[in-house]
Amino acid sequence: MNQSALCIVMLMKEIMKSDAVLKKIHIIRGHKVMLDRDLADLYGIETKRLKEQVKRNCDRFPEDFMFELTKSERDNLRSQFATSSWGGSRYAPMAFTEQGVAMLASVLNSPRAIQVNIQIVRAFVHLRRMISSHEDLRKKIEAMEEKYDGQFRVVFEAIKELLDIKSKPTKKIGFK
Predict the structure, then answer these.
(1) CA–CA gap between residue 58 and residue 36 (Å, rounded)
(2) What whole-number distance in Å separates Cα of residue 79 and Cα of residue 42?
(3) CA-closest candidate to residue 70, choices 40, 29, 105
(4) Are 112 and 43 within 8 A, CB to CB?
(5) 60-92: b or e for each residue (b if 16 or more CB lie within 10 Å)?
(6) Dihedrals φ, ψ of 19, to 5°?
(7) Alpha-carbon distances of 140 from 55, 116, 143, 144, rounded to whole Å
(8) Are 25 and 33 in contact, with CB atoms under 8 Å apart?
(9) Interior CA angle at 163 toward 157 and 166, to 5°?
């Protein structure tokens, strides 16, 4: 195995071990997205280069694949990361949905970008499964609640509250 292939394998192990991808998925405008700077970091390239490739291939990135953050979304994001308003990028960050991240694989064609994309898509699928399992559990609890009388109401309400806490995203940025 050559040196670059070994580095890619080590990177993939690190990404999967630390849940680095899941931590970089945010909820913006009701969509699960990843920001351009986070993707560039994972791909090992400058954010500027990632944006250049997207702009050169803008027909591959419709609004449901990628969108730029509004000023209020940027301000909200900045406050969540507790960074100062001084410095930073002059341009609005790009947010990529799962489909947009998959499309990046056709634009960024390095072996590392391809492997990172595979891991990112897997993270999105994992997140979707987790959300789906919460919904399934909620439906089963509601069915049990209808079946049994009021003596278990407190128990069912407590379980529902726990599900609501776990299913709420930890990072929520802006609404539109």
Answers:
(1) 14
(2) 23
(3) 29
(4) yes
(5) ebeeebbbebeeebbebbeeeeeeeeeeeeeee
(6) 55, 30
(7) 47, 36, 5, 6
(8) yes
(9) 145
Rounded to two decimals, the pTM is 0.61
Paired tokens of 118: 């595979």
Q: Which two tokens stand for residue 111?
A: 């072996």
Tokens of 134: 């919460």
Strand 25-28 and strand 172-173: pairing? parallel
Nearest 10 degrees: Cα torsion 60, 69, 49, 101: -50
Q: Which two tokens stand for residue 140?
A: 């089963």
How far does Cα 147 stand from its chain's mean position?
38
Tokens of 135: 């919904």
d(C-alpha 147, C-alpha 150), whole Å? 10
* Amino acid 62: pLDDT: 95
The rounded distance, in Å, linking the Cα atoms of 169 and 55 is 30
The CB-side HSE value for 84 (13 A sphere, CA atoms) comes to: 2
Tokens of 150: 């009021």
Query: How does DSSP classify residue 97?
Result: -
Residues in the chain with pLDDT < 50? 15, 17-18, 83-87, 175-176
- Residue pair 97/64 in contact (Cβ under 8 Å)? The answer is yes
Token pair of 39, please? 């993707």
